[in-house]
Every structure is written in C-alpha cells, then in structure tokens.
Model the fold of this input.
Amino acid sequence: MVEINNLTKRYGNITAVNNLSFTVSKNEILGFLGPNGAGKTTTMNMITGCLPPTSGTIIVNGFDISKNPMEAKKSIGYLPEIPPLYTDMKVYEYLKFVAGLKSVPRSQRNEQIRDAMDRLKISDVSKRLIKNLSKGYKQRVGFAQALLGNPEILILDEPTVGLDPNQILEVRKLIKDLKKDHTIILCSHILQEISAVCDKALIIAKGEMKALDTLKNLSARVSSNIALTITVEGDKAKIIDIFNQTKEVLDYTEISSDKPDAYSFKVELLNDDARKKTISKLIAEDCSVLEVQTDHASLEQVFVKLTKQPSKKRTIHDVFDEIEKDIEKDMGSDDNKEA
Done:
C-alpha cells in the first residue's frame, strides 16, 4: 500500500531524512519511532504530499505522489501532530467542510460525519465551537476529519496527545479496529502505545533507519542472551547451588513468588541450549519446575539501544586544540584588517 524508496530530504547542508526505504502492507499497522529531531514528521509530511522530497520515490496505493498527487492523496487520511482545525467553526460544520474538500458525495456526507463522530465519541459536542473544546476533544475532532472519505491509508502523528487514560484506551481500540479496513502508520512517543497496537516498528535516528521488524524480532536483536523467569519448588539452597554450578547461567536474581512453597528467579542464560540444561539439572535434583517464562527486551530497551548516540568525552588536549584554533582565527582576522 505504501512503498518508500531511497527517500531523502535536505535543508541546505542539513539532511533531515537520509535514504529511507520501507514498505507498509495492506491492513498493517506500522509504528514509527525515533527521538526528537529524528525526521519522523518530515517523513510523514513527504508521504502525505505536504512536503516535496529532495530525492527518492513515494508510492501510495499504486500512485507516485510526485507524478499523480491527486490520485495518491485520495487514499490518505492524515492526522498531523497539531490537528488542522478551524477553531471558529462548530464541530459538525467543520467536518462537513472537510468532507466537501475531500469530495465526499453529498448523499454520503452526513452518514460519514455521524459515523466518524460516533467512533471518536464527539457527537455530544457537534454543535460547539472548536475553540471552546478541551485539548482532548480537539484531538479527537482532528482524528475524525482523517476518517472522512474512507481513505485506505491512515497516517496518525501522536493521535492520543492530550487524551485522558480512558480516552487513550478507547482510541487505541479504535486504531486496532480500523486495521480491518485500513493500512495505518502510527507515530507516537508513547512506546507502550506502539507495543499495544502495532504489527511492526520502524525506528529512525538522525534521519536514518536503525531497524524495521516485528516487536518480537526487535527484542531478540537487542538481547543475544536468553532471559527467563523460573518458578521452582524445592530446597532453595539446592536451587541456588545448581545456578552457581551451571557455567551457562550468567546471572540470576530472586524475585517474589505468588506460589506457596516455591521460589522465583530471573535467570540470564548464555543460549537456548542452556535453558534445557538448567531445567534438566533442576529436575534431576528433585526440584519441581512449576513455571518457565521467556522474558523479552521491552520496546523501551530496544529504542534506547538503537537510537542512543555514544557521547564523546573532551580531553584536556581537545580544549587546548580549540584554544589554539581560536587564537589562529583571531590572528588571521587581524592580518586581514592590516592588509
């Protein structure tokens, strides 16, 4: 549905997006992640045709957005980070105006507007001026306008900003429901949101792709070791002794157990074979293994590892070099003045 090939955007000497390529399949929800200034909003503005790329191609529903912008944009519903609202209009009036801009047939406008308002739970404010609404209601009105015209592709930039916890859960459920009929690109700083609703995650930093995969595979990439939560019934000293004697057990920590007469441990293992070896040793020593759960790296851990830039420490030599350059620069300026 959306194909991005070698997408690049430069502002003078600054490269905001650098050679980005990815595909979003039909009825897929792609989470778009990156630190501030990574190029997420710039990328979405290019996909929606709001901003021309320096180079690269954007294919939306089979149409090149540079060559056939009108056809490509018909397939897109866009909710930018700041909703595009006319605050002096009433909610229903504004949505009717947007429906007209999107060339929704007159016979379908009222039905589509009512459906969008019902989905976002804003029917009760349909006759109120937008400027008098709370930030959360404004956000939902912006989401509603993105649904008008039944676009096949939805691009949502921070859709739950300003919503209370109950509203956030409702909007997340809505996004998952919309997947049945839409392809969705979801940008959010709330990593829990990406984990809750997305099929895949695209992570960028400084305009470059760092990863594109399912959340499970991204988690596996970050941690090469195996992490388990093991609940065992038996002699605690014997269990700990087994962990200590098994060289493939890299580390272990006891945690609280909700089962009586049992002990739970967070165990880090060298590889998958170590899992079988450790469990076999426990069973051989009459320790009953009640539960084994594989722990995956959280999306937050994945995000930090893939986007964190190593900080360069300044030495005293760096400071002296900078002072020397400043002196040479000042002397050069004085020589020019004398000339």
